[in-house]
């Protein structure tokens, strides 16, 4: 789907955006990842764009606490 460089960028952005999110918050991480992937598939592949989109998604992500 994506080349190795883009895949590495997507993973780095996800890790950066979710760095303060528990690894057990899988729903939140999956939500952020899906939004980042969606943006990248529509041509947004700059680190700044993806980070902004990821942070926005984190703010609306489901959490284990409700």
What is the succession of H and E elements? HHH
Number of domains: 1
Measured on Cα atoms, how large is the radius of gyration?
Answer: 11 Å
Largest sheet: none
Number of distinct helices:
3
Contiguous uncertain segments of 5+ residues: none
Distance between the termini: 33 Å
Share in β-strands:
under 5%
Helix content: 55-70%
What's the overall average pLDDT, rounded? 93
What is the oligomeric state here? single chain
Total beta strands:
0
Computed structural class: mainly alpha
Molecular shape: globular
Topology:
Elements: H1 4-17, H2 26-41, H3 47-59
Helix pairs in contact: 1-2, 1-3, 2-3
Keywords:
66 residues; 3 helices; 0% strand
How would you sum up this structure, described in words?
65% of the residues lie in helices and 0% in strands. With 66 residues, it is an all-alpha fold. It has one domain (4-16, 24-59). Helix 1 crosses helix 2 (26-41), helix 1 packs across helix 3 (47-59) and helix 2 (26-41) packs antiparallel against helix 3 (47-59). The longest helix is centred in the middle third of the chain and has 16 residues, at 26-41. The model has no long low-confidence stretch (mean pLDDT 93).
């Amino acid at each position: 789907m994506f080349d190795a460089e883009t895949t590495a960028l997507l993973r780095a952005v996800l890790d950066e955006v979710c760095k303060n999110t528990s690894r057990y918050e899988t729903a939140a991480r999956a939500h952020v990842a899906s939004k980042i992937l969606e943006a990248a598939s529509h041509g947004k592949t700059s680190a700044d764009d993806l980070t902004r989109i990821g942070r926005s998604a984190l703010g609306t992500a489901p959490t284990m606490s409700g």
